[in-house]
Amino acid sequence: MFKVLLVALMVICVSLVGCGQSKFIGGIEYKPIGVASKIVPKNLTTYSDSVRYEVCVGNVIWGVILCETVIAPIYFFGFSMFNPVGPMNSPAEQGETVKH
After folding, report:
1. Fewest C-beta atoms under 10 Å: which of 18, 24, 60, 67?
2. Which stretches of the chain are DSSP H helices?
3. Residue 56 lies in a domain
4. How many CB atoms lie within 10 A of CB 59?
5. Rounded to 5 degrees, what are φ and ψ at 55?
6. Is residue 58 in some structural domain?
7. pLDDT digits (tens, 9 = 90+) for 22-75
8. Strands 23-25 and 82-87, how do they pair?
9. Distance from chain centroid for Cα 48
10. Is 10 within a domain?
11. What is the pLDDT at residue 96?
């Protein structure tokens, strides 16, 4: 009985831990994005080409571990795979060509 309670408590704790973090950049809140966030119209998401995003390794791991549940990978890969880190610093990071 004790092991069942311990496992249930661990499952609850793990389910409440999230890796995706919002970040304020230039006074605008940018939320984590995923593959589906890039195809959603711009007025429904805070995705921006002028913000640098990095892969959230924790969400990728959870998406792979929970791949049999179908719903978890859709959330992790579709809507919470990349975290905003900061603004793009150089023209090369923004996808522009750099003239030498």
Report:
1. 24
2. 2-15, 57-65, 71-79
3. yes
4. 24
5. -65, 135
6. yes
7. 889 888 888 888 888 777 766 566 677 888 989 888 888 888 888 888 888 888
8. unpaired
9. 14
10. no
11. 53
Q: What are phi and psi of 72, to 5 degrees?
A: -60, -50
Question: Is residue 100 pLDDT above 60, yes or no?
Answer: no
pLDDT recorded at residue 92: 54
Range of the domain at 54: 21-83
Residue 35 one-letter amino acid: V
C-alpha 87: how far from its chain's center?
16
| Count of structural domains within the chain | 1
Q: What does the alpha-carbon distance between residue 22 and residue 31 come to, in Å, rounded to a whole number?
A: 4
The pLDDT of residue 91 is 55
Q: The tokens 């992790």 sit on which residue?
A: 76
Whole-angstrom distance, CA of residue 56 vs CA of residue 77: 10
What the block records as the tokens of 22 is 């919002």
Cα 78 to the center of its chain, rounded Å: 9
Residue count of the chain: 100
